[in-house]
Amino acid sequence: MKYTQKTKYFVFGAVAAFVCIPLILKAKETIKLTFQEGDVVSASVMNAVLDRIENATSTLKADDLVGTWTVTQIVPYNGQPGNGSCRGNNSCNITGTTDAADAMTRYRTDTVTITKSGSSYNFSQANVSSFVDAHTNSASTGNVSVLAETVIFKNVGGGYSYYYAKKKGAEKIVLQDIQSASNAFNIVVLDKANIAPAPADALTATVSGTSVALAWTDNSTDETGFKVQYKTSARGSWTTSTTTAANATSYTVSSLSAGKYWFRVVATNSNGDSISSSEVQAEIQ
């Protein structure tokens, strides 16, 4: 059977519908993008999806920790964060904790920044200590090391903690304390704070003369704009027609020459670009 270019895209779209969507659902915490039957999925989208899945399932590396994270520190209800000797002793409670709805745990939140300098990794918390001597409300700084799936924190005072790490994706890591100098029992959830926006979705194109009116769904709340991009062949390079303002959901590309075009939209902010939307095709007569 001879396959035309149109047939190839139909087959590729069908494969994307049956293969990519389950993979996306598996990595839904980091990929918020869906495809409809018949969509044209670019190589860049496929590569980005596969990279995210690889990121979610690969062994944790020290470089994965670099960045700014929102920290949620969780402990059993009858004890302050991190100090086993205070369980059941309310006089040991510290400020900043919140009782969970299930009445079984309490938690507090903060921000940690992990940086890399040469071969060394360093952490810094300005308000509390979630990792070492985790019952204190004071700044905590020190070094971080990763061995297999174990993360080691050591503060400037020489205290240390070992955490078993479960990588949930490029933007979420769960740490469970397994050994600590302060006899701590902590579960610490790290959520990446400086992330690119969620992808735009449901892109459509309407041709009118030499113009193509594009419309899409804005799935993010933190984008600074959307890059509207096009190319003139399936394997061509993308050209950015414009970068819209935040919250835009449409744009018209005008004064196009006759021929076929492929369009996509990429949400962007100061942390980088999202995965692009699926592509749409349009032809100017």
Overview of this structure, please?
With 285 residues, the protein is mainly beta. It folds into two domains: 5-57 and 196-284, Immunoglobulin-like (Sandwich); 62-192, Lipocalin (Beta Barrel). Helices cover 13% and strands 42% of the residues. It contains two helices and 17 strands. It has helices at 5-26, 43-57, and strands at 67-76, 98-99, 105-117, 120-125, 140-147, 150-155, 160-169, 172-180, 187-192, 201-208, 211-217, 225-231, 239-243, 250-253, 259-269, 272-273, 280-284. Strands 1-3-4-5-6-7-8-9 form an eight-stranded antiparallel β-barrel. Helix 1 runs parallel beside helix 2. The longest helix is centred in the first third of the chain and has 22 residues, at 5-26. The two termini are 30 Å apart. 29% of the residues are buried. Mean pLDDT is 78; it is low at 1-31 and 80-94.
Q: Quaternary arrangement of the chains shown?
A: single chain
Looking at CATH, the homologous superfamily of the largest domain is: Immunoglobulins
Helix content: 10-25%
Please give the order of strands in the largest beta sheet: 1-3-4-5-6-7-8-9
What is the residue-averaged pLDDT?
Answer: 78
Q: What string gives the helices and strands in order?
A: HHEEEEEEEEEEEEEEEEE
CATH topology assignment of the largest domain: Immunoglobulin-like
CATH architecture of the largest domain: Sandwich
Q: How many DSSP-defined strands?
A: 17
Radius of gyration: 24 Å
Number of domain modules: 2
Shape, principal axes of CA atoms:
elongated
Q: What amount of the residues lies in strands?
A: 35-45%
Q: Pairing-aware structural class of the strands and helices? A: mainly beta
Per DSSP, the total helix count is: 2
CATH uppermost class of the largest domain: Mainly Beta
Largest sheet: 8 strands, antiparallel, barrel
Q: What is the rounded distance between the termini?
A: 30 Å
Which residue ranges are poorly predicted, with pLDDT under 50 across at least 5 consecutive positions? 1-31, 80-94
